[in-house]
Structure formats: structure tokens, C-alpha cells
Write a structure and sequence with these properties.
The longest helix has 15 residues, at 37-51. The chain has 110 residues and is an all-alpha fold. It is built from five helices and no strands. The protein is globular and about 35 Å long. It starts with 19 loop residues before the first helix and ends with a helix.
């Protein structure tokens, strides 16, 4: 996890700021593998921060937020409230992203 930043995200190169999409990809791999518990926990905390509503946060692509919500759900985290907030604040969404978010809401674990 040498590319994992202090915020729990991941970057392309050591010492760089976390990249949202790279972080979601790595978190997905960590969740799927079931290994590296501390790196996985930090990565999921980063995804939770990424998907939370925070005024002034740098914009993140809707598809990346949607993917982060999926990975959190895959890890067993409750995401229903975050999905509802995402849908309410991310208009207009591409049809495929909206469909994925609605699916997450329908199968949500909370």
C-alpha cells in the first residue's frame, strides 16, 4: 500500500495527492480480495468521505461517485442515504449512472 495516501486514497505516483478514480479502483480490488484489512478500511473511509455531501469539495465525476457507492455497498456498508443524496444533487445524470444509482438504492443494505 505504498501508494496509499494519509487520507486513505491512492495516487498514480508516491507523494501525489489521491486520485478519486484510482482510489475507487484500488478499493474495489481490496474489497474483492478480502485482504489487507487496514488498507481496505482506510480506502473505504476515503470512499465514504468522497461520497458524502461536503460544500466546497472539488468536483468529482458522477460516474466515479456512483462507482464508489457501488464499492461501499459491495463491502457491506449502508449506502441508501448517500445514494438518495447523490441522486438529488447530481442532476442531470447520464442514463447508465442514474440506472446504477437507482439499482443500488433498490438493493441497498440499509
Amino acid at each position: 500500500a505504498s501508494l496509499q495516501a494519509k487520507d486513505g486514497g491512492f495516487s498514480f505516483w508516491p507523494g501525489e495527492a489521491s486520485d478519486a478514480y484510482v482510489s475507487v479502483q484500488v478499493a474495489h480490488a481490496l474489497v474483492a480480495s478480502g485482504r489487507a484489512a487496514s488498507a481496505r478500511a482506510a480506502a473505504l473511509a476515503y470512499l465514504k468521505q468522497l461520497t458524502s455531501a461536503r460544500p466546497g469539495r472539488a468536483p468529482v465525476a458522477a460516474a466515479t461517485i456512483d462507482y464508489a457507492l457501488y464499492v461501499r455497498r459491495l463491502a457491506g456498508e449502508p449506502v441508501g442515504a448517500d445514494v438518495r443524496r447523490f441522486l438529488a444533487t447530481s442532476r442531470p445524470l447520464a442514463a447508465d449512472v442514474a440506472t446504477q444509482a437507482l439499482t443500488l438504492l433498490a438493493i441497498g443494505n440499509d
